[in-house]
Amino acid sequence: MIKLIECPRDAMQGREEFIDTAIKAAYINQLLQVGFDTIDFGSFVSPKAIPQMRDTAEVLSLLDLYKSKSKLLAIIANVRGAEDALHFEEIDYLGFPLSVSETFQQRNTNKSIAEALETVENIQNLCETHGKTLVTYLSMGFGNPYGDSYSPELVAEFVENLDEMGIKIISFADTIGTATPDLIKSLYEVNAQSFTQIEFGLHLHSNPAVLSPKIEAALKAGCRRFDGAILGFGGCPMAKDELVGNVATESLVSILEKNGYETGIDKTEFSEARKLAQVVFH
């Protein structure tokens, strides 16, 4: 079963002009009708760091969740953010960005990797106590531009640490578009075979022209959890390449269907969401 995770939070967070709260809620309400497994809808982080997401709690209050089977995921960067998110029973998943790169971990959460791992363990304990599931993103999972050490073996060490904490979902994140089909395949096969109790996902930033072989490599390696953002909005500001944005969900759906996989999305509602996205992200 393919799980599609739609990421309006990732698409919105880097935009300079503030998107009105009502518009955010209207867009996410439309996404809730499409049939995605999960909506990465907002984040509980410092409003100074990510001003676009300062209204996440208010957006949540405007969502109509009763007719939707989609689950909600909120990104957090520290224990305080996790505690804020845990107040809302509507949220199913908390997502934490853990980096394989020491430099990027400092830039992204103002923590060392050692401190971030300690934070992950504390948040995991909170999630277990409150009946939530922690999704850990391994950013720079396919390499980094900072000269920090990287290897598939290093990634496996991170996975082993997370497994010992009881983490059940890990998403490999290609923050700057460096993943190759061969690296995707090897990373998934090694970890999926060694840690069968963990669900591994893929959060790509990629040039659209080279996306299809990457998704197909992940599928062949057994990946069934994919993140995307309609029209490919968002991505990493450090990439300095406007083509290395989020995977466009419509491209992802097309590749999956071409390879014989059912996505379970409602095409009519999906079309409406794409129209609305063009207005939201004009």
From TrEMBL:
InterPro entries: Aldolase_TIM, HMGL, PYR_CT. CDD domains: DRE_TIM_HMGL. Keywords: Lyase, Metal-binding. The keyword Protein biosynthesis does not apply. One of its GO terms (molecular function) is lyase activity. Residues 1-271 form the Pyruvate carboxyltransferase domain. SUPFAM superfamilies: Aldolase. It holds the Pfam family HMGL-like. Belongs to the HMG-CoA lyase family. This is Hydroxymethylglutaryl-CoA lyase. It comes from Fontibacter flavus. The lineage of its organism: Bacteria, Pseudomonadati, Bacteroidota, Cytophagia, Cytophagales.
